[in-house]
Amino acid sequence: MLWCLSATRRALALHTQLENLCKQLYETTDTATRLQAEKALVEFTNSPDCLSKCQLLLERGSSSYSQLLAATCLTKLVSRTNNPLPLEQRIDIRNYVLNYLATRPKLATFVTQALIQLYARITKLGWFDCQKDEYVFRNVITDVTRFLQDSVEHCIIGVTILSQLTNEINQADTTHPLTKHRKIASSFRDSSLFDIFTLSCNLLKQASGKNLNLNDESQHGLLMQLLKLTHNCLNFDFIGTSTDESSDDLCTVQIPTSWRSGNLCSNPSLFSSSSVRRSLFNNAERAKFLSHLVDGVKRILENPQSLSDPNNYHEFCRLLARLKSNYQLGELVKVENYPEVIRLIANFTVTSLQHWEFAPNSVHYLLSLWQRLAASVPYVKATEPHMLETYTPEVTKAYITSRLESVHIILRDGLEDPLDDTGLVQQQLDQLSTIGRCEYEKTCALLVQLFDQSAQSYQELLQSATASPMDVAVQEGRLTWLVYIIGAVIGGRVSFASTDEQDAMDGELVCRVLQLMNLTDSRLAQAGNEKLELAMLSFFEQFRKIYIGDQVQKSSKLYRRLSEVLGLNDETMVLSVFIGKIITNLKYWGRCEPITSKTLQLLNDLSIGYPFQKSCGKLVKLSAVQFMLNNHTSEHFSFLGINNQSNLTDMRCRTTFYTALGRLLMVDLGEDEDQYEQFMLPLTAAFETVAQMFSTNTFNEQERTLVGLVRDLRGIAFAFNAKTSFMMLFEWIYPSYMPILQRAIELWYHDPACTTPVLKLMAELVHNRYEPPATAWVPKDQVYALKLKGISICFSMLKAALSGSYVNFGVFRLYGDDALDNALQTFIKLLLSIPHSDLLDYPKLSQSYYSLLEVLTQDHMNFIASLEPHVIMYILSSISEGLTALDTMVCTGCCSCLDHIVTYLFKQLSRSTKKRTTPLTQESDRFLHIMQQHPEMIQQMLSTVLNIIIFEDCRNQWSMSRPLLGLILLNEKYFSDLRNSIVNSQPPEKQQAMHLCFENLMEGIERNLLTKNRDRSVCTKNVRLGRAPSLTQSPGVSNPCSSPGLDCGARFGRTPRPEGGGNRRGG
């Protein structure tokens, strides 16, 4: 008795302690106290008796925070993949949670949500768990029915359970294989989702038939949860495409055909309903469905009071955009109320644009709607009027005038300027370019009127001695918007068939912008406006795309107008204006990185045409271009100077500059070494300066000088794509200056701002190897920038050197040259310094690694076979993970690597069983021994490959099938067991068909890996025979490779790093 009393007291003390820790974690403002409480609670969640303690907290907890802790810990327990909870225990937890929610309907909202999340997680992970031949976690509607038959609070909990469960099953997590997730989601879709959706629609109908009091919190909450449940059902990933809301254009709800009876027309989730796939209906049904949608839009626009809420407004704008992306203009105009609806939408758009400060992120969807409508005008075949010629000019005018009117308010009130976000501005202008080209005469007349007004006011203010800076800034802001918009509408010429009259209108606009440029350039010595200069560069880029190049007719009325107004008679004179502006910007804005970068990009774009565009030849003949080719020094271009205040990464624009100069130099270079030497004089002087500093150990600014120099050389190396010019560069840099680069790597190995440019230069040259930078500990959040990026470049460099056919590598061993062996051993050292988890988390690293590994397994398999066992297992594990990568390039490379390895293994194994005078090499014999010691690695990859080919939508099926024959021949017994397991896991009525598929797979296949045998095996006909009936004709086929009884090892999910974005299936 005393022992029981003592245990009770200990339990109560523990309970009190946990409640106090929860309060400290969630309520205290003292950071130290919160951290200490967090540490103690982490220890609690990892303790062996956590389960019983969680039940104690739920039973006796007086604080909502302790209940939240218990629910969170239980969710963590049921989610773990190692040492999972027994089935009976999970069933008990599920039942306990349901009873707990039923008896406590008024818990804190976040506690209820956490418990519902726990129920959803248990249900999802146990979806295929059976007890006495019954799926114990699938009776979700039965579990919820008792909630729906009780009070409003209970109904809210029941609907929330279904909503959260639908959302939980729809989302893949990183701790479980993607194949298991898709298997669960597909089964849930086929067995339960439609019933849940039907239930939600029926409940909504019942609610709409009652006079609900939405001011009542409970009734309002119930209706919100019903709508959320319906939305989650329609947003379910029916076909495994994993779309998200960042890709609205591609977001189509792939509702199964069997759902046609679900009466979608009555569904209030308008946005999701508007995204339903077109093929779900026949023509008559689609027209009726569209009519319902348009009628709903009309009623909202006639009573827009609810749109004052920003969230409602945003979703409604998305709905409008989806109307056109999912339906053709020819279908819309046939809707009964189309004239009235298009008028209401136009008025709504105009009003929204005029109130630019309200929900600015929603403007994208409105402009997207009108852009699509305007782009469809030339293709409409319906006889009904579309009326866009009436309303698109109104939308264009509203956008332009609202942007101009916003300038004064933004400057006066110090608001955030939209012009600061050039990405957003460019996105909107791309949409406006199409809208403005519809009824272009009206757009052009409006722009000419507004531009003339602002330009005249601006010129008067500049000439006035009493003009206020605010007035000048306002006019500069208005002109900035106008220049951006003029560039956009000129760029929109590609969207429509243009006429001579419209080219003449473009000429009017271009003349005005060039006149403004002359005015602003004349004042740069005194003052300049950065945003206006960026707008000018945007205009020049659009003008270049449309009116510069051999495809443009020089008889265009635009050139006639330029000749009449500005005396620019031909394209050469227009190009001289471009180059003049480029030189002016580099002279006056050399310390402004955004302007310098965009200016150099414009120069680079002009130079890209060589040798296919005659305009490049015209460029080189210009005196301004010759000036740049002969005077590319910091004296004339300040951005080439060394500024101790600037960051080393700011020198990236130098590469762009020298890429453009290199292309222009190549136009007339030929084999003229004197011209080349003259061009390289400034770079020669820079190298000599760095060499002198190294020799005297005077480390002043040589690091910055060297970084700038190698960025310059990388640009030249990139541009010199002809053999003659490239050899000039190579002979100039090697061997004279290569020791300087090597010395720099040795000296600044710890600084990626220095090593990365040097490595990138070497990657361009790909003819040299050098000692890689020493490894050192780096912070986890900087590991890519400081370490992995440089290693990735080294991998790319070595791959290019090995696959470039520069030399026969057999001669290295013949002459005792260890350069190749040193390079390959360096690769292994670099590889082993990378944690396994990083190889697929960073896309650039994974692509460079697997492409190099493909070359090594193809041409240097003897080297791979000679490696230590732990290195071989590391490489094989990386191939196994790469097979399931989302990146097709990585997956295909892994298939090729695996094919080379199993082919090598099979050949060596075949040789070892035959009587030969020449024994196996030591490397081959050891490699075979290692593989015999670890057969599970090859077996695992066989399971993975077969699993992907049969059960997934494999986009590279040919590549994936290449290693399959070799894997089967190396593991015939395992393949037989795997085949039987797959067949037996199917429903009885499909087992015979699946067995026949496997028979077809190996029909007529001999036991060798000759090309002829491969080509008639799994690589072509037989894989298709084995796949089609089992997958495409049997949607209910289950996937045995994710069942507990078969250790396929098909997925290795991990959380992707933010820098890399991730490269895994299921991750």
Automatic annotation (TrEMBL):
Keywords recorded for this protein, A-Z: Cytoplasm, Nucleus, Protein transport, Transport
Gene3D superfamilies attached to this UniProt entry: Leucine-rich Repeat Variant
Region described as Disordered: 1029-1067
InterPro entries, A to Z: ARM-like, ARM-type_fold, Importin-beta_N, TPR_XPO7/RBP17, XPO4/7-like
UniProt GO cellular component terms: cytoplasm; nuclear pore
Location in the cell: Cytoplasm; Nucleus
SMART domains assigned to the protein according to its UniProt record, in alphabetical order: IBN_N
Residues in Importin N-terminal domain copies: 37-103
Pfam families linked to this entry: IBN_N (PF03810), TPR_XPO7 (PF25795)
GO BP terms in the entry: protein export from nucleus
Polar residues bias (residue ranges): 1030-1042
Sample GO molecular function, one term: nuclear export signal receptor activity
Recorded superkingdom: Eukaryota
Chief location: cytoplasm
Matching PANTHER family: EXPORTIN 4,7-RELATED, EXPORTIN-7
Annotated family: Belongs to the exportin family.
Protein name: Exportin 7
Phylogenetic classification of the source organism: Eukaryota, Metazoa, Chordata, Craniata, Vertebrata
Gene: XPO7
